[in-house]
Amino acid sequence: MSNPLRDRAVIVGVGHTPSSRHMGKSPMRFTLEACTQAIEDAGIDRSEIDGIVTVGTLNELEVLQHLGLEGVTYHAGPLGGGVGGGVAANAALAVAAGLCDVALAFVTMEAPRPGITYNYMGHNGARGDDAFTLPYGDGVFMQHFAPWYQRRRQIDGVTDEQIGAYVVAMRENASRNPNAVWREPITMDDYLGSRYVADPLRLLDCDMPVDVCGAVIITTPERAKDLKQKPVYVSAMTTGQRPRPSGIFWHDYDEMPYKWAAKRLWSNAGVGPEDMDFAMLYDGFSPLVLYCLQDFGFVPKGMGGEFLGAGEHLATGSLPLNPHGGNNSEGRSWGFGHVCEAVLQLQGRAGERQLADVHTTMIGGGGVVNSSALVLHD
Fold first, then answer.
1. Where are the domains of the chain?
2. Angle at CA 160, nearest 5°, toward 157 and 161?
3. Nearest alpha carbon to residue 90 among 235, 1, 218, 242
4. Which of 6, 121, 276, 308 could form a disulfide with 139 if both were Cys (CB 3.0 to 4.6 A apart)?
5. How far is CA 186 from the centre of its chain?
6. In terms of CATH architecture, what is 10-113+208-377?
7. pLDDT at res. 119
8. With pLDDT > 90 as the criterion, what percentage of the chain qualifies?
9. For residue range 184-216, what is the model confidence (pLDDT) as tens digits?
């Protein structure tokens, strides 16, 4: 069945703040900076925005007010999960379906500081899954994900050096990204010497919480004809979820919801994984790319480690991954930095990071219990 929404929405503007451990500005201020940058990059008047989609620190309606917009005909959080990719997918769906003509999609993240934390052990309540984990000291993301990674290693024989090859490459990519929080190159020895945060997950496998906002403008192909930047077409957008909201009590640590996001992705897009010139795969924890690679069909099941170990993820490899450094080195944006970078690469505006002769890409977002995916082309 053909996809009636294929190529009915385009991304025409990008805004992205630097990623910083502490930007010294309020989240609203740096969010407005990124959104204004995206609006100006697209060459539209902000009064044209009639759709707004986000997830993260700020409420989209507060941003609407601060941008001075009179109102919108569509607003929402992430579609079905997948966070950054799901936000962009939601906005693209709204435009393609005629619910709005010009959508602003953004994600704002705020680094931990007093009163803001990612550690769930700072309270006395232990409801739901927490009742089975918090009393035993299992209270943060890294601890929840470590058994998944351990299972991947047991099944596939994934090695430290294979994952290390990915992390080292991300830091090298980030050295050419002025928005990245980690820009100093590292060696394999640096990776292997980094401490465990939850065995077998190392410190350098984890993305860094940062202050950051990324934003894009999405509109119709017709409106894009008169705008500044070359439009990037959204060929397909999907999300995926299994009927278990818990990553701890998930049915099978051998597969993630990427598998369900992939069920209709390629048929909706009219292309396959073999047609991608590069891929933007979510890497809040570096081993997540192993699941993305296999579940979206880029490698045979269980071959993700060998793919990374052979350097196929490099700019010179068969499928370059995350030329901006990924969340692993750019900083935690819940995958929205992947969206911004994908657009810049397809527009030929990625500067020192620009890949040669790229026209089509896939963005995979989310992980553990939810996922999203988009296919873009120029």
1. 10-113+208-377
2. 100
3. 218
4. 121
5. 23
6. 3-Layer(aba) Sandwich (3.40)
7. 47
8. 71
9. 999 999 999 999 999 999 999 999 999 999 999
